[in-house]
Amino acid sequence: MSLFNKPKRNIRRRSFNDESEDNENRMEIDQEPVKVKPRRKDKPKQTLLSFGEELDEADDGEVFKVKKSSRSKKLMKQLDHERRKKKGEEKIQVDSEQANMSIKRDKDLEIKTDDLVVKIKNAGPLILNGRAALVAGKDDYSSEDEETSKTHTFRKNTAQPDTMKLLLQSGCIPDAAMIHAARKKRQKARELGTDYIPIEETTEDKGKSRLVREEDHDRSDDDDEDRIDMTVNTEARDKEKRREAFLASQVTIKLSDDESEHGLEEEEWEVQQIRKGVTGAQIAAAQQDSIMQHQYSMGMNPNQMIGGSGVPMEMVLMPAPPPPPSIQPPDPTKVVPVSPQEVLEKMRARVASLQQVHRRHQQDQIQLQEELEQTVKELDEGSVRAPELAQRFRYYQELRGYVTDLVECLDEKLPLLTGLEQRWVDLYGDRSNELIERRRQDTRDQAEEITSAARGQPVRRGPEDDARIRRATEREGRRARRRRARELNRNIPKHIDGMSSDEEVTEQQNLIFKQTKEEIDEESQTIFSDVIEDFCSVRGILTKLESWRETDIEAYTEAYVSLCIPKMISPIIRLHLITWNPLMESADIERTKWYNLLLLYALDKGETEESLKRDPDVRLIPLVIEKVILPKLTAIVEKIWDPLSTSQTLRLVGTVSRLVRDYPNLNDTSKNLEKLFNIILDKIKAAVENDVFIPIFPKQVLNTKHTFFQRQFAMAVKLLRNILSWQGLLGDTQLKNLALGSLLNRYLLAGLRVSPPVDALGKANMIMSTLPRAWLQGATIEHLKMFATLIQQLSDQLDQANPAHNEAWDYSKAILSIIKP
Description:
Layout: H1 18-22, E1 30-31, H2 52-60, H3 70-87, H4 96-99, E2 108-112, E3 117-121, H5 130-151, H6 163-170, H7 176-192, H8 222-225, H9 234-250, H10 258-277, H11 280-298, H12 313-317, H13 340-455, H14 463-488, H15 507-525, H16 533-536, H17 538-551, H18 553-558, H19 561-576, H20 593-599, H21 609-614, H22 620-639, H23 646-662, H24 671-690, H25 699-704, H26 706-724, H27 732-753, H28 757-770, H29 773-776, H30 785-796, H31 806-819
Antiparallel strand pairs: 1-3, 2-3
Helix pairs in contact: 3-5, 13-15, 13-19, 17-19, 19-22, 22-24, 24-27, 26-27, 28-31, 30-31
């Protein structure tokens, strides 16, 4: 059982019929808490309307009424007229629940029933649908019409009927001008402050009216009648209202009927086409007829025109045509008389200009005829050359495919080739570095032995001493073997210790070296094993390019093929030159197979000296030597060449001098040749700084241990001879600074000073024999002045009466006569 008794409320529910269920749209409202007010028990007044009692009740309380837009009212009027015309007037019955409800649009919406009042907040314009919208619109419209007709029967009967009503009854669609006139009419009624809309307009209010939007200033509500306008800036407000009125007059009212929309679009299209095809003067001439016809057909009062001017809004918006130009007759007093001579001159000038134009046209015609003939000729030639050009096109397509495949093949094989070249250079370079380091270590060991013996230090035995003893034993053994080999070969001239190169290696080292070299040779033969002959041989590549040269020499020259050939065949030539070593063997590149192929490339029996000058491939072999051979030779010099080795130096000098002599492009402008000479100078500088060592000992030590001194002095003289062998290839300034300034004056002259005069003059004669004859001709070289002074001092120490000094005396005289101090 409930603790509280709930109050009984008799709430009557609305019954929905079939018509309300078929409506698709629904009322959209926001509900607020319900407020219940006591029902008034006053006796309802008798009215002529079936729901007049509820209206009277609502006068005492807050009754809300739905405010509808002008568009909805017009639609409802049209629908009501059609319904009456078809079915007759039918009175719509409303059930008891709908009769007790009155709807009014204001701030809130109040719905009254028998025992409660419901207030619903209306956030925006209330949208009704179904029977409710029909009843609300019809009731408002019919009630307003009836009240107006009953209340104002005293108005003049001579007034014209409502144009809008007549249009709606006839089924026509009002245009913008009529809508504007209707709004103007309602505005005047509001400004008069009356409760009715007059049927007939008076002329007293003309000029005072102002276009006001009906939706914003509708005075149908009771609360708006007493509202006071507190606006300060009236001018801005009036300006805004006029702008809104103008914009509203420009907008065409879109009705829901599809036919009306289509009609408006056609009318607008017709206006646009007329504006395009008719001038402003024609429009101005036709305006009066259009205005009169418009007034007659629409039955429009002149007061209903915009501004009372009798011109519709559409015509007002049309731009006014420009005034016609005024033509005045000439003044006889101001006319300048023209003589016949002036007329004749003007006619002659006119004829001359026309003749000039005629000549220009004739020239243009001749030019066009020539161009036409040339075009026809080119067309005939093109038709004749079409098969030849088609065949040429196929040939170039095939050649393009071949070149593309060749480039792809070489790009794939080039890393393998570069790896083999590096392995071969490293193999010979490691052996050369081992021999150079062993020679320098032997020099350090001998110098330490002599120094220890001179100081009288006791012999110590340790790991370092054992290694030094082992190295000394191996060194003496190699010297003994070289001495026996020279004794067996009696054709060799007298040998001086220190002049020979110690390049002997052990059997194990030699075996490992040969095995690695054979592996490199085998791998070099398998690089192009999976490639056909046309892509991996110099003959195959040159055959393709030679056929191109014979087919189209002009295109061959324009494509700079002669400059591209060295790069295309360089990988194959480098593969053939992997084991090429000009330091170990005198291998002539002119005798190789690839060189002969390049030499015979594009050979013609009828070639002459003049034709060779125009031949683009005349510099093919020099380019190959510069681009392929010189980089290979530079790597060999940098990694393998030993400047103290006379045999290597002489072979290298012979190879370089032959290349420079035979190929004219190897000059001072060649970057590859410059790089080679820079590497040679760097190697010579390193040898002078690291390999030359002439010990300076006291005479008593020198007499007992003179072998090491003699060997080191002879080694320095051998290096001087190897350096001076580059005379003619390297610059004289560089060579003089290295050979004379560094090696002779710094090391050799010091050795000559500590030697006996006879021995010193013999060594001086050996040094003099290594100097180039080109340097000894002319003025005395600056670097030889110290040498000449020392020779003069040594000759003064000689005893001319001693027969043993005669040879030394002859050496000094010959040296001084050549140097000319």
